Amino acid sequence: MTPPLLAGVALSFVSCLGNFGIPALLGIPGNYLVLPTLIYQRLAGFGPAVLSEVAVLSVLIGMIAVIGIVAQDVLLRGATSARQARRSSRAPSSCGAGGGRSRSPCGRSHSCVLVLPLTALLLTSLVSAVGVPLDAASATLENYRFVLFEHAAARRAFRNSIGSSAVAALIIVLIAVPLAYFLAWRSSRLLRAVNIVTEVPYAVPGVVLAIAAILMFLKPLPVLGLSLYNTIWIILFCYLARFLVLGLRPVMSGYHQLDRTLEEAAQIVGARLVRRLVTIILPLVAPAAAAGALLIFLTAFNELTVSALLWSTGAETLGVVFFSFQQGGDSNYAAALGVLTVIVSITLMLATLLLGGRLPKGVLPWRD
After folding, report:
1. Backbone angles phi and psi of 133, in degrees to 5
2. For residue 154, what is the enclosing H or E element?
3. CA–CA–CA angle 255, 263, 187 (5° rounding)
4. What's the whole-model pTM score?
5. CB neighbour list of residue 300: distance below 8 Å, 6 or more residues apart
6. What are the tens digits of pLDDT across the range 26-79?
7. Which of 114, 120, 307, 347 is deepest in the core (most CB within 10 A)?
């Protein structure tokens, strides 16, 4: 197996290790548990009294994830070297931009993985109960009306998810623009350490970050006397820590494509760093920063892994309400809520087309 394939395997392993949503929705009903769902059940069933047990389980997941992250980093370096050696003799991909026949296997795969499940979700949201055939007589929008106007937790979840995702995106962009200046254009051991630190919260499983946040904020903070536990603010804190790298990487890509001539000229005439950032650099990296903010919003808007362990009454997120509907047997309400979140996500993804060619290549995963 080649280094790129091995690196992909390592990345998939780390991603699947800490995933909560899929194992929770599909595994818990059949009592097929993985470590994240086991932590959730222990914490949900016994409360803070089992924090020591779930902390041990979280450390175990974290250790396994670190091994996968290190392996991925080593393999990616090997993949980069191999790609440079073979650059002149690269073989065409079967899923590339070739003829129609070469793309048909990928097209069928995408249909199975994306189109069919989304179609099933839409059809389920338009009937009164699971198993009822959809026709002119059985079609109804009652599930959408209930989710949007009658269910108080769902309405709160829309407000909480939109608000916390937007605030997290804004704060991270404000941090990322000056931080990326040093990470992209300066070099030191401290900056390399900072670069690694920004990646760790996103790389480790979300349940590990959630347990760490619970242990940190279970008691009031020293001096301040404030406690974020059982509030929406603890979820926002985890969003800031976990998704910082999503806002930082696009901005760094923007910095790498900038010509420093204007910034250096301003520095020569005496302009301080803050002024150079605001008047020269920010307008140039604004498209990349906006793309990073959108990526953060979309990721946080549909997030479940962190909020499943941190939510409380009044601090529900859309992922939590969706999971609650499904666990309670209200699959039609869950389907309606799922369709609404998909519509919001697709609308925002299409909005990136407005940025057009101003985005650095590779900033957003759904654009070439």
Report:
1. -65, 140
2. helix 152-185
3. 55
4. 0.83
5. 161, 164, 165, 168, 169, 239, 243
6. 888 888 888 888 888 888 777 667 878 888 888 888 888 778 777 766 766 665
7. 307
